[in-house]
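BACKBONE GEOMETRY TOKENS
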Amino acid sequence: AFDLSNTVTAGIISATGRPITAGGDKGSGSDISYVDALQTDAPINPGNSGGPLLDSRARVIGINSAIRGADKGDDEGERTRQSGSIGLGFAIPVNQGKRVAEELIRTGHATHPVIGVTLDMQYTGDGARVDSKGEDGKPAVVAGGPGARAGIRPGDVITKVDGVRVHGGDELIIKIRAHRPGDHLSLTVLRDAREHTLDVVLGSASGS
């Protein structure tokens, strides 16, 4: 911004493992980035995405990715998003970014881990509910996929990943994508008012 190069800002890491989504159409899930992010109050402004987040020893710990803008009311009472830093910046953890970069160099494309289910993104309860059916009428749980092999069923509500609570579909996707294909996860599932613990081996899907 402002044609100012080689600019450094300073701040602290104010949270880790912060689930955020950025870009795309949240309703359809297209082109959305799901990130288990580092949160920082170091000013990140438009145009800074892709720059490094450094620690006090100048080691790269993250890749600046998104900011939370300020809400601004107009004369009609509508709220719009105002650009610029308000002390809520987010960065992709460097290990996650490094894995994707190495895969792109090695194969020419990136993959992300999946459990092979369609989630009901309109579900307003606590947890992530597996939909009753998938896109175009296909099964919500892919036959022979990671979720099916683990015993996940349509209508199940996934409430925890490795013992850590998830409160919605976005959070579940973010927790899954913080891992690698082939990793083992323990999912806590609520089914017919009873909790079940299922072990799933993450599958792989190509990024679009």
About this structure: Confidence is low (pLDDT under 50) at residues 26-30, 72-80. Residues 13-109 form a domain with the Thrombin, subunit H fold (CATH 2.40.10.10). The helical segments are 94-107, 146-150, 169-177.
